[in-house]
Amino acid sequence: MQNAVERELEVELVLSPERSVPVPARLSYFTDDPYAVHITFHVGSESPVHWTFARELLVEGAFRPCGHGDVRIWPARAGDQGVICVALTSPDGDALLEVPSAAVAAWVERTLRVVPPGTETTMLGLEGALARLLTPLPADDPWLSDPWPGEEPQDGEA
Asked: Is residue 84 a contact partner of residue 66, using CB atoms and an 8 Å limit?
């Protein structure tokens, strides 16, 4: 059974040190993908922009700079408000976003209550999938038994 933790919020797309524009976004966490967080930006086009990255990156980035490559996250202040900066890099361009830290912290806390850190693998169902994969099927029977029953090795044969 999949559970979802979602939150609609408004993030600031930083265009320059003096200018930013609000962008509606949705944070999503799904228990059947327990290591990842998803963020969808509604940028006024027909198709929203989707990003997926490690939940641990967002958890750590709320306290200290982390990440490298396509996703980097760090805490900061915008005026008198605490924000979490998210820098995204893709072949289509770069974006710097400021997300209200209180909203993100509350949402992350909800995901951590649903799937506590260290228990993510239990949500993946790997044990059941591995058991199904390794369980012999009736068609496997000829391969599981001796293909030449009753034949004894002759002298000089091993």
From this structure: no
Here the tokens at position 53 are: 């990255």
- Identity of residue 139: A
pLDDT digits (tens, 9 = 90+) for 89-104: 999 889 999 999 999 9
Do residues 59 and 108 lie in contact, with contact meaning Cβ atoms separated by under 8 Å? yes
Half-sphere exposure of 75 (CA within 13 A, CB side): 12
Dihedral sign of CA atoms 25, 27, 32, 34 in order: positive
Instruction: Please spell the DSSP secondary structure of 100-115, one letter per residue.
Output: EHHHHHHHHHHHHHHS
**Whole-prediction pTM value?**
0.73
Angle (CA) 39-42-46 rounded to 5° is: 125
